[in-house]
Every structure is written in structure tokens, then in C-alpha cells.
Amino acid sequence: MNVIFIVNEHAGGGKAAAMWSKLKKELTIQYTEHCTQYAGHAIDIARSYTKRSVTEEDSRYLIVAVGGDGTVHEVIEGVAGSEHIIVGAMKAGSGNDFARGYTVFSTIEQLELYVEQETLAYTTNDLGQLQWADQKSSFVNNTGVGFDAYVVQLVNRSKLKKLLNTIKLGKLAYLIFTVWALFTYKRFSARIYNEGKILEFRDVWFIAVCNQPYFGGGMKISPRSSTSDQKLELTVVHQLSRIKLLTVFLTVFWGKHERFKEVSLLQGHEFELELQADVAAHVDGESLGRIPAQQRITCRLDERKWKLADLSQRSRTS
Description:
The protein starts with a strand and ends in a 9-residue tail after the last strand. Helix 2 runs parallel beside helix 3 and helix 6 packs across helix 8. With 318 residues, the protein is an alpha+beta fold.
């Protein structure tokens, strides 16, 4: 088994760089190290190993992402569909929602014990896909349009996030800007097409399509989501006053927001969204900018799957 580390040293405001420096001193197994240099670099690196795995005799790889949700997203995008690559992760970001919904390595000892197993257990997981016009992007955790994406834009542009990361309180940035956005965000109308039905929503705060429960630094927005059930869950929050939305966000950390009549939940393999205004969008916490009004957006299950290291040793083995 070839062990590859892909490290985003900028993740978590430099937290990943400090973590990696420490981890390297603890490693006793052979490994290859790559540090990302630009946005999308982890995709390129992971994809190069995907190509190698097809042609090389010793073609099995464990690729470990050291960084935040964006780093893991890129690694999985690069290996999705590969039969010979297992993904692992060590959390070093600010939101770390991937680590809440999936299994990650907590220590080097845990990782090395896993690698030493005669057969490596893994889980096979779903991947989502967002598409509009000629643009396409995969998502591992979730994708969203509206208020949540607007908050992502505010957080990622803010110097406050970097400051909070230095004192290990980076996830508070999401909460702070969520409250700020409550008083500045403009709602929109949307039409959702699902399994032959057309659903109309007015005064929409946001629409989230999820593959696992968590987003925004620990908010349990989609409690029913499973990473391997071959389904996606869509959540629409609409026709809420600003004060009541704050109440909803206070309950979302425990997944109790479902009880509100203004929270609508759908489940399926594919959703089409038609927005009546230019709306901010994101995938896995990374901003996509704004999607133009009247643009038809499709959220569906990707045909590709990806493998995640399973530390329970009870799942299917390679």
C-alpha cells in the first residue's frame, strides 16, 4: 500500500502547516508528501495517482488529505470512480464538517495501525453533482444556494476568520456572520422540480442539498442524510421572519429545525431548481459566486463512487 499525504498548509489559518510539521516527526512508515500550491492543486495531484493506479502493478494507494473541507473535497474529486484508491483525512480546517459526517484519522498511530492491516477496510460513498449551464461541480458534503452561500462568501472574504483560526475558534466565524447576514440578506423565490412534481416557494432564505448531515461548522442541517444511501436530501427554509430564522438556527445544531412548518424537506436522486433572482451558491463551503436568475440548476447523484478508510474494520475489504 502506497501512502500519500496531500497537505494544504494554509487550511485553518495555518493550523494544517503546524499539524503536518508535528505529524511528520511521528511517522514511522514510508510515505510521499505533496503540499498544495494553488486552488485545485489537490485535484491535480490526486488525479495523477488515479491515472497511475490504472497502469502500475503495485497500484493501491491510501491518499490522506490534511486540511479542511475544501482540501478533502478536492482530493475526492480527483479520485472519484477509482477502484484502487482509498481516501483518508486528518482534520485541520476551520469548519471541519467532513470530520463530523465521515470517519477520519485522529492520530498517526491510528493511521499506521490501519495501514498495517492485512486487508484495508473501506466504505463506499456517494458523491453529489451540481450543474448549471456549461458548469459542473461535485460535492461531498453539500451544496447550497441562498443565505448559507452568502454567509460562506462573507466568511471567506473576512479577516476575522483568519484571526479566529489563530485561537482555534474558526467555526465561530460562521455563527457571527450568520447573525450579521440575518439583517442584510434579501430573500428570493424558487421553483423545484422533483419526481414529476413542481413545487413553488416564496421568500426563500436558502436551499441546501446534502449528502451528509452537517454544514457551516457543525450545524446539523440535514439530520436524515446518509453518506451511502444513494439518495440526496433537500432542505428549503422559507417564509420566516428574521427573528424566527435566528430561532431556527439555534435549533439546527441539534437537528431540531425540522419541526418548523417553514422548513420543507425532500429526498430523491435528482432535483432541479429554478431561481427567480441572482443567488449566491457554494459547494462544500467553497463559494461559486452568484448563479443568474432563471438559470436551471440540477443537483443529482454522481455516477462515480469513492472509497473512505473505515476504522471499524467491519466493512467491505479490498
